[in-house]
Each structure stands twice: as C-alpha cells, then as structure tokens.
Specification:
The protein is built from nine helices and 13 strands. It is α/β, with parallel strands linked by helices. It has one domain: Rossmann fold (3-Layer(aba) Sandwich).
Length: about 290
C-alpha cells in the first residue's frame, strides 16, 4: 500500500516515518507540493498515484492566522478540497487531520465528533472549511480531529517548557483551558490503524469525522507540572509552575477553554486507542533529554 503523506517536516509526518518503517511511505512538501497551489497538488498526486493519502500538512500559526486569514484559508480551507478531488480521480481515500479549534470551547464535557461546530477564530474557521471541502470533494475520507500535539520533533509545548526551564526558576502557565495532550507518535499509530483497516479496499469508518487524541485530560498548567516531574526524574531542567487564568495571558487569537475530545468511537471503528497522555509524555521527555 503506497501512502502519500503531506507536510514531510511536520510532527505527524516525522512520527509516521518512524512508526511506519518498512511501509511504502512517500513524503511530500514545499516547494514541490504547495498547499497554496492547486496545480502542484494535482500534479503530485497524479504522478505519485498513491493508494492512500494522509493530509497532515496545515497552516498552524494560530495567532498569525488572524493577520493572514486569506493564506490560512487557502492552505487549510481550500487545499483539502483540491487533495480530495485529485484523490478521487485515482480512487485513493484520504485521511485528513483536523483540530479541536472547530468547536467554541464552551462547557466541560468532552466533544463528540458529531457535536455542533462553531469556531471562534480564523484558524478554527479555516480548518472547518477544509473539513467541508474534503467531504464535498468526491473522495472517500476520514477526518481525524486531534489536539495539543507534541512529540520529539519540531516545535511544541513540551519542548518549549523544557527550554524555558533552562533559564528560569518559575513560570506562569494558563490553568483554565482543558484538553487532551496528544503525542504525534500516537497519532501516527492511529493513522496506520486506519490504513490497515483500509488495506483491502474496504473502508469502514469512511466519510465521517473521528476524534483521535491522548487518553485523559488536563489543563496547561498541570501539563507543564507533569513535564517537569518527568524531567526531574531524569536529571533534566525543572521549574515551579503557577496556574493563571487565560485572561492574564492574552493572545491575538482566543483559545478554546474546553478542548476535551471524546475518542471512543475511533477505537471502536479502527481498533486503536491512544495511551494515557502521561505515559506518552514520559516517553517523549525521556527521548528529548537523551
């Protein structure tokens, strides 16, 4: 099964390269594959002729999207439709990554895949537009929403906390926003679980939205405390954390207060559930410190 993966330098793509060793994975990215250029999307897919496409690349600068809504929409909102139409021409299904930001962040219960979407910022609006564009493209698809992604690769919250702790004794971290910390390595396992279920041409769970995130929830401040606890066990940098309300840490784009995702249907459909977030965090911190 030839699998084309977009965003070759991103956390998920690099995690797929590691978790998918021995598989026929083709990674594409700029300048050859440009999400803002429909022609390059169509050409790459037509020439590669994959059996499955993993749409992992995106415009992820949440605050910057408020200043560049047109570019964010081209990449997040329009490109998934271009990918879907090119995939439909060769009969390849698409696994597309989306986000908790499609919800308004209200309430305290975990969001189900079929809950009403109502994004509160440009990033979330463009990602929701991308979900709709893919669904209307004619390709078979699975949309996988995830949240709070970290890994040993790229830029993410875990790496930022460890870096900041090298030069500080204390940090203020938002404590009233909740979600599922999610290892990109676990996302990779989830994606490969879908690929394995779709190996023989049957596509259970297709043409639907699913949630794929770490098991268990926390807030950013307690997540930071857990990072430093794991780091301290291994002789790495540690830092005192004080929880503050989001109102004391203003950002250009409003963050959802509730990003909890209900993921049980993914496990029921594809036979994979991500580990407890604490378990995956320990693995990532150990790797980063090593």
């Amino acid at each position: 099964m030839k699998i084309l993966v977009t965003g070759r330098d991103g956390q998920v793509a690099r995690s797929l390269a590691e978790r998918g060793k021995g598989r026929d994975l083709v990674f594409v990215g700029r300048p050859d594959f440009d999400l803002a250029n429909e022609a390059s999307i169509s050409r790459t897919i037509a020439e590669t002729r994959p059996d499955l496409i993993v749409s992992a690349a995106a415009y992820t600068a949440v605050d910057q999207a408020e200043d560049e809504p047109e570019l964010a929409m081209a990449i997040n909102g329009e490109a998934p439709g271009h990918i879907g139409r090119a995939a439909a021409k060769i009969g390849a299904p698409v696994i597309h990554l989306s986000t908790d930001y499609v919800f308004d962040g209200k309430g305290e219960r975990a969001w189900n895949p079929d809950d009403l979407t109502d994004p509160i910022g440009a990033y979330g609006k463009t990602k929701l537009a991308g979900e709709k564009a893919l669904a209307a493209s004619g390709a078979a698809y699975a949309i996988l929403r995830t949240a709070w992604v970290y890994s040993p690769f790229g830029n993410n919250f875990v790496k930022t906390m460890l870096r900041l702790a090298e030069g500080r004794d204390a940090l203020n971290v938002v404590g009233d926003q909740f979600g599922n910390p999610t290892s990109a390595l676990d996302i990779a396992y989830g994606i490969l679980s879908v690929a394995d279920r779709w190996q023989d041409g049957d596509t259970p769970g297709a043409n639907a939205v699913h949630h794929l995130a770490g098991t268990g929830t926390t807030n950013w401040a307690d997540f930071a405390k857990a990072i430093f606890a794991e780091s301290g066990k291994r002789g790495g940098p540690v830092c005192d954390v004080t929880a503050i309300p989001a109102s004391e840490y203003p950002t250009k784009a409003e963050r959802p207060a509730n990003s909890r995702l209900e993921c049980s249907s993914f496990g029921e459909t594809f036979g994979y559930a991500a580990p407890r977030w604490e378990v995956s965090l320990a693995e990532t911190v150990a790797r980063l410190l090593a």
